[in-house]
Amino acid sequence: MATLKDFRNNIKPNWCPGCGDFSIQAAIQRAAASVGLEPEQLGVVSGIGCSGRISGYINAYGFHGVHGRSLPIAQGLKMANRELTVLAAGGDGDGFAIGMGHTVHAIRRNIDITYIVMDNQIYGLTKGQTSPRSSEGFKTKSTPAGSIESALSPLEVALAAGATFVAQSFSSNLKQLTALIEAGMKHKGFSFINVFSPCVTFNKVNTYDWFKENIVDLEETPDYDPSNRVMAMTKIMETNGLLTGLIYQNTSKTSYENLVPGFKEEALAKQNLKISEQEFDKL
Ligand code: SF4
Ligand code: MG
Asked: Could you give the CA distance from residue 216 to residue 243 in angstroms, rounded to a whole number?
């Protein structure tokens, strides 16, 4: 059985020292080992951005796609090989700006992949511009007088789009993050996991200390019920989206690939046996 070491390769990440993305890489590797995968049973697809490099830093099948397009590639991969555990990852610019259309439709489609957004509330790779997740008043080179737009609330969007698994974590909380990725990989449907991943080089507002002061951990919220969608939406709004933990899960919806006629077990069996439908029916 594969261990954490088997998901490591010898490529040294070129993220800045202290970048939150390191912990997300480690959490994915730990989760993959702990759910019992072998490296050849995992496919990691990423978009463009500092976070997009992650597909090269994990010993598994990897595909570094184009900007905002990790989800179309990941969905194609899952449809082509249902046996593969597919994980897509990218930044908030990648998933919530250029790729937002794909994000919403992949969520409502409920195809069985895990999607991790490495949310640093800025564009890091291009040296610090305001992103859809930057707060009102946020100053960067692209908004020198402060952003006049409101930040997107990805958890509200995911729930409204019909997500069957919504979670959020913080890159400093490796234990929680690993457990949520594990749960996402086991969930039979689309798993949306937003992760606060501080950009230590360009985002001087949403720092590790800022998150530590502002995050509300659902593990410390008694009577929270992640199967209650209304409670989930209320809690997101009450905390201004700064909650962490498993926010919502619905295990009763069949995942997309299991509803596609040509992908049903019996159809695949016929294909593998290479016999006609009539012959199959006689078996
Ligand atoms: Fe991480 Fe920011 Fe450096 Fe990119 S620029 S590697 S997001 S710290
Ligand atoms: Mg970003």
From this structure: 5
